[in-house]
Amino acid sequence: MAEPDRPVPHRPGAVSLFFVAKAGVFALGFWIWLLVLAVRGSEATGVHLIAATGAICTTLAAVVLGARMALQRNAALRHAELKRMLVDISWNAFAAAGNAEQPGGKVVPFPAASEDGERPANRGERVSVLDRGDRNRGDRGR
Predict the structure, then answer these.
(1) Residue percentage of the chain with pLDDT more than 90
(2) Residue 67: closest CA among 10, 8, 9, 23
(3) Cβ contacts of residue 62 below 8 Å, gap of 6+?
(4) Residue 88 to residues 4, 5, 76, 92, 94: CA-CA distances in angstroms?
(5) pLDDT band at 103, cuts 50/70/90?
(6) Residue 90 pLDDT
(7) Does the structure show a pLDDT above 50 at 1?
(8) 26: helix, coil or strand?
(9) What is the DSSP string of 62-106?
(10) Which of 16, 81, 97, 116 can bridge 12 by disulfide, Cβ–Cβ 3.0-4.6 Å?
């Protein structure tokens, strides 16, 4: 059976890349401007400060936007894989339940809550901090 056409998951693309590239171009411009001012060898003025501030800020903006784009792309891929896995699990459970009446059919049992609503016996009971009293201290604190 052929693999069905699945929709492509959302991935950050052109718009995010545009802002990363735009910040990179501005950063490059500020760095070139700062380099030209430094090569001239004149005394440091307010123009030097503006060029340096612009270079640092736009470089940081480009790095942050690039990291955000990479994280969004990674999260989109993980989300698509999770959705695909949930669909596969659901389909397998549906198919297994469908052949439960057949003699060779196997049903995958899912854990069910007990009828009286109590917790399973293998879990430890929760005890609040106030109910513990001096039990946890023992003789260590003395």
Answers:
(1) 32
(2) 23
(3) 20, 23, 24, 27
(4) 13, 15, 18, 6, 10
(5) low
(6) 83
(7) no
(8) helix
(9) HHHHHHHHHHHHHHHHHHHHHHHHHHHHHHHHHHHHHTSSSTT--
(10) 16
> Cα–Cα distances in Å, from 13 out to 61, 73, 75, 103, 108?
18, 8, 13, 52, 41
**Both tokens assigned to 30:** 């500020």
Q: Which residues 6+ apart lie within 8 Å of 100 measured at CB? A: 107
User: Tokens representing 10?
Assistant: 């959302």
pTM, 2 dp:
0.54
83: which 2 tokens?
């959705």
**Alpha-carbon distance 93 to 104, whole Å?**
16
Distances (CA, A) of 80 to 9, 76, 96: 6, 6, 24
Q: Does residue 107 have a pLDDT over 80?
A: no
